[in-house]
Structure formats: C-alpha cells, structure tokens
Prior knowledge:
Blueprint: E1 6-15, E2 18-28, E3 33-37, H1 44-52, E4 59-64, E5 67-68, H2 71-74, E6 77-80, H3 92-102, H4 107-120, H5 136-148, E7 154-158, H6 166-181, E8 186-189, H7 193-199, E9 202-207, E10 210-215, H8 217-222, E11 226-231, E12 246-252, E13 255-260, H9 266-274, E14 281-285, H10 289-296
Parallel strand pairs: 3-8, 3-9, 6-7, 7-8
Antiparallel strand pairs: 1-2, 1-4, 4-5, 9-10, 11-13, 11-14, 12-13
Subcellular location: Cell membrane
Pfam family, one: ABC_tran
Keywords: Antibiotic resistance, ATP-binding, Nucleotide-binding, Transport
Amino acid sequence: xxxxxxxxxxxxxxxxxxxxxxxxxxxxxxxxxxxxxxxxxxxxxxxxxxxxxxxxxxxxxxxxxxxxxxxxxxxxxxxxxxxxxxxxxxxxxxxxxxxxxxxxxxxxxxxxxxxxxxxxxxxxxxxxxxxxxxxxxxxxxxxxxxxxxxxxxxxxxxxxxxxxxxxxxxxxxxxxxxxxxxxxxxxxxxxxxxxxxxxxxxxxxxxxxxxxxxxxxxxxxxxxxxxxxxxxxxxxxxxxxxxxxxxxxxxxxxxxxxxxxxxxxxxxxxxxxxxxxxxxxxxxxxxxxxxxxxxxxxxxxxxxxxxx
Length: 308
C-alpha cells in the first residue's frame, strides 16, 4: 500500500437521542503528526473506532489515499487503544510475533520486526516476561510496539503518553516522529497539551462531538487574542485593571501577563506601566494551546480556527 492522506469526512454518529459525532471532518497528510484533543466524552475515541471499523458511522466517510477504507486497508493501520488490549499472560516477544502474523507477516518477518521494536523501545530485558508482570510504563511500550510491529501505513493512537515517565515520553515521541518521516499519517489524542503543542504539525479540537478548531498551532493561536508580558518592578498588583480591554492573566512578582481584547491599545498599557516606574520588559505573547483549548471547550461559542 502506497502513501496516502487520511480523511475523516463529515462523520456523524448517534446513540438514540444523543449525538456523539456531528459531521466531524479533518485530514492527516502523509508524514504529518495530527493531535486530536478534547475533553472526556467529546468524541475522540468514537471517531477513532469509526476510523478503525470497530463502529459504523451513521453518515460520512473515512478515506485513505482518496479511497474508502476497507477491511484490507485496516490491516495496514496500527492502533494503540487507551485501554490496554494486550494478552496479560503472554510473553512480550511471543505476543508481538503473534500480532504481526495476524496482520499477514511471515513468521520470519514477524520475529525480525518484533525483536527490532523490542530493542527500539528498551524492552530487551523484558522480552520473555509476561505482560502482566511489567510495570505500567513498560506495558505502554509493549502496546506501542504492538501498533508498530506490522509496519503500518497509518498510525492511530489513543492517549499514548498516559502514565509514561519523561524518558519514556521522549522515546515514544522520537518513534512517532520517525514513523511520520517515512510518510505515514499519524493521529493521536492526548490530554498533555504542552506535548501536543511541541510535537504536532497540526491540531484539531473537538467539543461535544463537533470540531471547533483545526490547523497548525501557529494558525490557531495567532487569531486567539493578543497577550503581553510586562515587567514593572515598581507596579502594585492590579496596576493594569484601569486600561480598557485588558485582563490580567497572571502576576508573578514584578512580571504581569496580560490579555488584550481585539482593538485594545497596547500603548495605553505601556503608559500605565511606565506610570508605576521603570519597565524592564514589554513583549508580545502568543497564547498557548492550553489557553486556546480552555476557551474552545467552554460552553460559550468558540472561535473557529483554520479549518482542515
């Protein structure tokens, strides 16, 4: 199977009166890392299960390389579920070989690939251990190896970084980047938004079954309000409160982080700061993905980002 773009096109799903997904659309280009984020119950896992064929959509379509995804396509998808789906009493190597063979690999290729991923993910000393005897972090590594062992052409991961220590996060991040670099579209969900912001090429935010923003982090945060970082050693707390359209986000000693509404005058902020004495820092600040996410999943209408 050749490289291709993964497309989720107006996918909807209902459970009785409850709308789980409402025309969800996004795409993941070959070689792209796409972060799929949202609150618990927003529809991330449902979307992934439809992508995998575990659930059927009520309407809409999932495509890879421009063609609807079939059973044959799905044998080339690597999936890492949030709930671990491993056989607890099987040994690590034995399990990975078995899963690779289930995806159509020969016995020799399955062993070769299993040993490769065991070594890559730091599991060599645990290769003959039962999965249930591993730490949670190592079980997570085995779960990733299970998603990669059959050399997938699409990679879908549901909360892959959950419960990992910083070293394991670095290892997994490196593996995902390398896999994407081979032309594989990679989509993963995560609540660790700082990691999503650092790792992903593009991000989609889902709320109550609807996509409310999609684009690069730069695109999404560029239009999400203006911020300033002001350091004024002589300023009293709340010194900027009288400036119209300005809200204090955080004050840490002499440094204040401000958010400006559209049209607010940053020069008025500077004048107010100078009125307190010397100003040693006055810089623009782009909002973080975490701040954007909080606004996007709030009950108030969310500003649309750049659509996928």
